[in-house]
Each structure stands twice: as structure tokens, then as C-alpha cells.
């Protein structure tokens, strides 16, 4: 591999051994799924360490590689971003300029072609409108899942192909593995389980997965990912991870909207205060309620029809049943499964009952904290991703 990397014989012996073992495992797994050595692979670059390391790994393995990144920022949103120095780093924001420069520099260092694809209109229509509409309906959206599904694995690849960029497979820096379960192609949790991102890819379908590969699914630590970038002379090796999908308070996006104020009520019906719009609240929220009470109160329900925020005690947040819709099955398996109701949630055993073709009832063995309408629920059989849905309603006391 002709790059600016350090001679491998001069690097730490532990890194050398770990990296060579990792490369061998990735090569073996790719051979199993029939990826030919002369394949051309497009890598979706974010300007961060994970996707950059993925690019370096695939070139090291001898594949023809190209880097592609999507431009999603639109200058008309600059009015919501008054101070670029104090914000956390997000996927959507004016700092995208630097991210694209970083991605381009990585490609230059590794001597591979680089392309930037403008998808700002599609991002606004697909991700931002979905995000705002869900909050205005009293639901809590998950824009990262929608962005991965619609933007990275559909619009980006379609636009790249239409632009004349040839590739056989698409790779990203996600920590997840491509897998087969009961003759169905699906995804499995990453070896580095603390970073597993199968939840965020749970709305991909079979056709998405068939043309995709995920080298970092087989890595053992994020530290090794950073060491790989450092080894190839990539300046982004210590760049912090993006912390959110947007680099300001999301509520800034609602400026200019005609949002009605309403009331905050206790579950027993007593009025406790006023709210400035249901989009400011989510299930489980305790801070920022601006109500007085002798004991802690939490948002337990958002009634968009009546413009109410309902609060109660923490025990009211624990429920067992929910209705999910918009189901995306990769493998339809109902026995011995578990589900995650948010990315940070530990998968919990549950049972599923089909109500309609695209609607299911999920009942957990034990009550779960803060089941939230609008969030993604992902289903697993051990480490295998079975599919996902969107939480529609919580069955109180079910």
C-alpha cells in the first residue's frame, strides 16, 4: 500500500500483531461472502476516524477504493447557528466544511479518488422534516436511523452511480457485521460490543446489506481503530466523535413556527403549570418542567391531541407493553427474542404478537423505563438483528 504510513516493523509490536490478526479475520470473512479481490469499494466518509480507518483497511487488503461523502448542510440554516465555537460537533452544521476537507485530505494521503455528493435538499426533505414533524406530534424521533437508511444507503449511492462513479460494494465505518441467519441476509452485533451500531442500521433491508460491507464489525476496540489511522499518517486519528445529529439545541429549528402553549397536568388531573410547546418535551424528562412539587415528577405522556404534558412519579415510567408500526423485518422470528427501545437500552426479553400486517404488540417480560413513542425498537435473536419498528403507543398498565 503506497501511503505515508510508518514502516510496520518500527511500530509497537502489540499493535502490529493485533492489526495483522484483524486484517486476516476481515479478509477471511470477506472471502466467505464472495467479495472478489479486484472489487471496487466506495467508502462513505464522514471526515471522522471510523470511516477513514475503514478506507485505509480496505486499501491495505488490496481492493480498489474510492471515497465518497455527502454534503447535507444548507446555508439558509446559518441563522440558527450563531456561535460555531461553542457548539458540540454534529453531523448537521456549518462545521461540515471542515469534515469534508478532512475526508478529502484522508483520500489525498491514501492516494485514492474522492467525491463529494450534494444531498442538502434530500436531507432537508427526508431527515429534517421528519425530525420536526415528529416533535410537533408529541413524539421523539430518531434521525440517525432515518439518515442511515434513506440518505447513506439510498440517496448517496444512487446519486454516486448517476454521477458515473463505479463501485461493486459500499462500505461504512459502522461497528456492525454482515451476517446470514436461517438463510436470510441480515446484520449482527459487532465484536466490539460497547460500540455496536446495529441499532442505527436496523431499517436497512436485504438489498442494502447485500451490497454493503463493514470491516469495523470485526475490530476489538476503538483504540485499535485510532491506532490504524495514526499508522497511516491520517491527522484525524484523534478527532473526537460526532456527539449528535445537529450541533445546536434542536429547539432552534422551531423558531418561526406558530406553536401553541398548553398546560402541564398531573396524572390525577391537577393542573401544575404551563408549557411552551409539546416539542420541548420527551418521555422521562424531569428537568425544565418549571413546576413545583414536593417530590420529583417526570413526563409520562405527551397528549398532542389536547396539547397536554402529563407528569407523574418515576414508577409511572415503567411499562411492559407497546404498539409498534412500520415494521422492517430482516428475519421474521418470534421465539426467544429481545428488543432495544433506544440505542443505550440493554436488549430485554419480549414477546411479539402481530395485530396487522404492519403493526405488532410487544410485551416485555419485565417493565422497561421510559418507553417513548417515535423511537425505534430493534429486535434481536442473541447477536442477530431481526428487524425494527417505530414505537407508536405505550399501553399503560398493560
Gap from first CA to last CA: 59 Å
CATH fold field value of the largest domain: Rossmann fold
What is the helical fraction, as a range of percent? 10-25%
Quickly give the CATH architecture of the largest domain: 3-Layer(aba) Sandwich
Instruction: Please state the CA-atom Rg, rounded to the nearest Å.
Output: 23 Å
SSE succession:
HEHEEHEHHEEEHEHEEEEEEEEEEE
Low-confidence stretches: none
CATH-level-4 superfamily name of the largest domain? HUPs
Identify the CATH class of the largest domain.
Alpha Beta
Taken from the alpha-carbon principal axes, the silhouette is globular
Number of strands: 19
What are the SSEs and their pairings?
Blueprint: H1 13-32, E1 40-44, H2 49-60, E2 64-71, E3 90-92, H3 96-110, E4 114-118, H4 120-136, H5 143-162, E5 169-171, E6 176-181, E7 184-189, H6 206-210, E8 212-213, H7 222-231, E9 244-246, E10 262-266, E11 271-275, E12 298-303, E13 308-312, E14 318-329, E15 337-340, E16 348-356, E17 359-369, E18 376-381, E19 384-395
Parallel strand pairs: 1-2, 1-5, 2-4, 3-9, 5-8, 10-13
Antiparallel strand pairs: 6-7, 7-19, 10-11, 12-13, 14-17, 14-19, 15-16, 15-18, 16-17, 18-19
Helix pairs in contact: 2-3, 2-7, 4-5
Amino acid at each position: 500500500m503506497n501511503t505515508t504510513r510508518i514502516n510496520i516493523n518500527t511500530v509497537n509490536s502489540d499493535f502490529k500483531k493485533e492489526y495483522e490478526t484483524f486484517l486476516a479475520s476481515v479478509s477471511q470473512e470477506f472471502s466467505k461472502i464472495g467479495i472478489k479481490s479486484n472489487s471496487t469499494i466506495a467508502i462513505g466518509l464522514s471526515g471522522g476516524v471510523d470511516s477513514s480507518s475503514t478506507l485505509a483497511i480496505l486499501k491495505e487488503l488490496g481492493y480498489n477504493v474510492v471515497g465518497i461523502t455527502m454534503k447535507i448542510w444548507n446555508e439558509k440554516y446559518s441563522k440558527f447557528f450563531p456561535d460555531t465555537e461553542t457548539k458540540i460537533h454534529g453531523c448537521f452544521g456549518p462545521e461540515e466544511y471542515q469534515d469534508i476537507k478532512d475526508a478529502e485530505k484522508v483520500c489525498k494521503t491514501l492516494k485514492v479518488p474522492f467525491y463529494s455528493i450534494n444531498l442538502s435538499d434530500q436531507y432537508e426533505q427526508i431527515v429534517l422534516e421528519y425530525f420536526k414533524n415528529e416533535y410537533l406530534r408529541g413524539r421523539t424521533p430518531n434521525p440517525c436511523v432515518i439518515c442511515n437508511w434513506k440518505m447513506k444507503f439510498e440517496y448517496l449511492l444512487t446519486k454516486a452511480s448517476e454521477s458515473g462513479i463505479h463501485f461493486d460494494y459500499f462500505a461504512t465505518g459502522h461497528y456492525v457485521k454482515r451476517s446470514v441467519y436461517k438463510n436470510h441476509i441480515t446484520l449482527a452485533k459487532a465484536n466490539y460490543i460497547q460500540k455496536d451500531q446495529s441499532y442505527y442500521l436496523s431499517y436497512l433491508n436485504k438489498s442494502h446489506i447485500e451490497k454493503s460491507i463493514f470491516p469495523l464489525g470485526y475490530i476489538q476496540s476503538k483504540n485499535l481503530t485510532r491506532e490504524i489511522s495514526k499508522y497511516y499518517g491520517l491527522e484525524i486519528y484523534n478527532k473526537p466523535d460526532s456527539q449528535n445529529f445537529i450541533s445546536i439545541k434542536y429547539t432552534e429549528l422551531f423558531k418561526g413556527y406558530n406553536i401553541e402553549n398548553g398546560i402541564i397536568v398531573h396524572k390525577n388531573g391537577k393542573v401544575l403549570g404551563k408549557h411552551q410547546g409539546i416539542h420541548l418535551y420527551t418521555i422521562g424528562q424531569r428537568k425544565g418542567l418549571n413546576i413545583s412539587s414536593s417530590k420529583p415528577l417526570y413526563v409520562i405522556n405527551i397528549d398532542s391531541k389536547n396539547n397536554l404534558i402529563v407528569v407523574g412519579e418515576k414508577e409511572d415510567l415503567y411499562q411492559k407493553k407497546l404498539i409498534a408500526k412500520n415494521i422492517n423485518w430482516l428475519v421474521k422470528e418470534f421465539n426467544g427474542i429481545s428488543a432495544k427501545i433506544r440505542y443505550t437500552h440493554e436488549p430485554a426479553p419480549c414477546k411479539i404478537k402481530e395485530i396487522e400486517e404492519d403493526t405488532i404488540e410487544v410485551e416485555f417480560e419485565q417493565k422497561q423505563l421510559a418507553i417513548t413513542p417515535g423511537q425505534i425498537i430493534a429486535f434481536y435473536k442473541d447477536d442477530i438483528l431481526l428487524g425494527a419498528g417505530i414505537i407508536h403507543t405505550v399501553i399503560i398498565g398493560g
